[in-house]
Design a protein that fits this description.
355 residues; GMP Synthetase, Chain A, domain 3; seven-stranded mixed sheet; Alpha-Beta Plaits; alpha/beta
């Protein structure tokens, strides 16, 4: 049992004393309080200075300072709320972000406006509760533009946005400020990869750094995947990820807008098309149809929906967009809500057979 300088006070003064000790940074949170009849022994981080002792005695004239008192160690807080319970006021604790995205050794949190003053405290707490994390980033603004980028602010650890993420045996180099990446889509990456059949040609129209394309290639011996993206930074990471995952013979990275790339070189090549650009996928349905082989194929269509029945809404909007093409929506094979992206707004996946 560890020794510590301690403060002996009447139990009835406990709350006031603890508040004062926290303010003076004298309270040793690693050790348990001890009870003795009507008194408490409170472990201190160090002996109080003369000025601090005067302030303590003004509030608690009956206190006694003792040295070399034995205390039991207190278990370390295991959760973010536990760790912050004494550092944030109760109303602020209620606003703590419950979801943290872990991308490689980076943790990404969304700090609400009412917690802005505590962001560094929250960042340090995330580092302590997740020992593999080296950087904590706060989202700074919404995802915007055709490249789906956002800015971040470092609130804990190393100030950087580049990392290496691992998912289903694949390795992805990414810079979060230069290329869109979401670990919340990991199940969707694996789900689509499991549906691909040997011998298929797949066009990933908005490939990013390659999470769909590379996982498909890793899971299948005989596939050709055309991974297209118009973001030069994402394209460079995609090329690197193709090499580090050793799928150079299966994945072909292509820089450019899918609309132009398909028209120039990918018309009629695909058995399967992935359309993971939920903000604008509906505008590319005609291009996805042009990409498919003459006999048709499968489209994995993604859309953001903020209406009462998200899956039905996505299906009907895909069907409406199909009317502007020379193809036919033969059958909707599967729909699912991938994730919620805002209150009452969802990302929806629609797998559709096209003839």
């Amino acid at each position: 049992m560890p020794q510590a300088v301690a403060l002996k006070i009447p139990k009835k003064s406990a709350q006031k004393t603890l508040t004062l000790l926290r303010r003076l940074t004298l309270l040793n949170r690693q050790l348990k309080l001890q009870r003795e009849n009507d008194c408490l022994h409170i472990p201190l981080t160090r002996a109080p200075t003369e000025k601090e002792l005067e302030e303590l005695k003004r509030s608690m004239p009956y206190l006694v300072i003792s040295e070399h008192k034995l205390f039991e160690s207190l278990e370390q807080p295991t959760g973010l709320v536990d760790l912050l319970s004494e550092k944030l006021p109760p109303n602020a604790l209620a606003s703590l972000p419950r979801a943290i995205d872990f991308i490689g050794d980076i943790a990404v949190v969304e700090i609400p406006p009412e917690l802005e003053a505590y962001k560094e405290v929250i960042g340090e707490a995330v580092l302590k509760t997740h020992t593999r994390v080296k950087t904590v980033l706060s989202k700074w603004g919404a995802v915007s533009g055709v490249l789906r980028l956002r800015t971040f602010q470092a609130i804990g650890g190393e100030a950087r946005t580049q990392t290496v993420h691992r998912e289903y045996g694949c390795v992805f180099h990414v810079d979060l400020e230069k290329a869109y990446f979401s670990p919340r889509l990991s199940y969707e990456h694996a789900r689509v990869a499991s549906l691909v059949k040997e011998g298929e040609a797949v066009v990933d129209m908005f490939a990013g750094v390659g999470p769909f394309s590379i996982l498909i290639a890793k899971n299948h011996e005989d596939v050709n995947v055309y991974a297209v993206d118009m973001n030069p930074d994402a394209y460079e990471f995609l090329r690197k990820n193709v090499i580090v995952n050793r799928v150079m013979d299966k994945v072909i990275p292509i820089l450019g807008d899918a609309r132009h790339v398909v028209s120039e070189s990918l018309a009629g090549v695909a058995d399967r098309v992935i359309m993971n650009l939920p903000e604008k996928a509906v505008e590319y349905v005609d291009i996805a149809c042009k990409t498919l082989k003459p006999e048709g194929g499968v489209i994995h269509y993604y859309q953001f929906v903020n209406k009462p029945d998200p899956t039905e809404t996505a299906k009907s909007q895909l069907a409406e967009a199909m009317k502007q093409t020379n193809r036919r929506l033969h059958k909707v094979v599967h729909t699912r809500i991938v994730r919620d992206v805002a209150p009452f707004t969802y990302q929806v996946a629609v797998d559709a057979e096209i003839k």
